[in-house]
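Hi all, posting the design record for the shared folder.

TITLE: backbone redesign
STEP: 1 of 1
STRUCTURE INPUT:
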């Protein structure tokens, strides 16, 4: 599994196609460079369970909380990202970091019923990014689950987090979700809300935008959540999803403007309507 293969090429593609999200793409490039360096060095989190047992019994990260995370490694990534992305933002309270990690993990696992009014600030985006090298390394290192729609999981089979984006692939346009934390991909029904499991098709909908029919925003009128769904059925292989996610940020802004929300961060971190012009 080659994570985010040829991301630079794809970033160049989106820079031309979506110049209005250029700043975000430049930021993403810095993030992916740091991420790939640290992922090479990261050690996979220990999991004694076979992934198919994890699927049956719940996931290992949920079970053991942050105990598995190499905190010193996390700190190193955290400060590297902080100084590269937000040199003006300093973060001195190292003692608070474990608690921030816990809060962040609870948030993206929807452990609190509907944590959608959660007060969240920029520091959580850095926590999110700083966890990725270890989590992605883990995701690469363990055998992937057998592809099946027999069991339906809206939480990641590897780490138990919610997805941030979805794609349709192959001739049958089967839907795959992408984990917001570790990048694992797994199958999920097309006509089902990822966040509340609603399957009433009258309460599910989507919108597209002019000239971009392959990118759609799936939304649910029950929980008011949305997720982008990219039709990759014409692709030879699935493009690097962090780049696709960032190149299509204007779809997120449109969804937010229409009152929909996404409980998980985008790849580059949490985005908010008020940040639109940043
Ligand atoms: Zn995951
Ligand atoms: Zn829903």
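Okay, here is what came back for every position:
SEQUENCE:
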């Amino acid at each position: 599994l080659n994570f985010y293969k040829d991301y630079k090429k794809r970033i160049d593609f989106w820079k031309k196609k979506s110049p209005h999200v250029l700043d975000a793409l430049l930021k993403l490039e810095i993030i992916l460079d740091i991420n790939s360096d640290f992922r090479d060095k990261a050690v996979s989190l220990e999991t004694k369970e076979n992934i198919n047992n994890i699927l049956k019994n719940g996931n290992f990260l949920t079970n053991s909380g942050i105990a598995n995370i190499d905190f010193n490694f996390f700190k190193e990534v955290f400060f590297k990202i902080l100084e590269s992305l937000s040199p003006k933002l300093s973060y001195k309270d190292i003692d608070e970091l474990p608690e921030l990690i816990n809060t962040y993990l609870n948030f993206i696992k929807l452990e609190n019923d509907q944590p959608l009014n959660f007060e969240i600030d920029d520091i959580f985006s850095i926590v999110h990014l700083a966890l990725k090298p270890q989590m992605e390394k883990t995701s690469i290192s363990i055998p992937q689950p057998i592809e099946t729609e027999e069991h339906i999981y809206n939480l990641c089979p590897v780490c138990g987090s919610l997805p941030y984006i979805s794609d349709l692939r192959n001739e049958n346009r089967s839907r795959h979700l992408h984990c917001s934390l570790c990048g694992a991909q797994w199958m999920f029904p097309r006509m089902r809300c990822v966040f509340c499991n609603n399957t009433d098709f009258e309460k599910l909908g989507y919108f597209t935008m002019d000239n971009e029919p392959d990118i759609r925003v799936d939304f649910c009128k029950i929980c008011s959540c949305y997720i982008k769904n990219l039709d990759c059925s014409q692709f030879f292989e699935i493009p690097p999803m962090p780049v696709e996610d960032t190149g299509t940020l204007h779809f997120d802004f449109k969804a937010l403007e229409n009152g929909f929300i996404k409980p998980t961060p985008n790849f580059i971190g949490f985005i908010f309507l008020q940040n639109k012009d940043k």
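COMMENT: The chain has nine helices and six strands.
Let me know if anyone wants the other runs.
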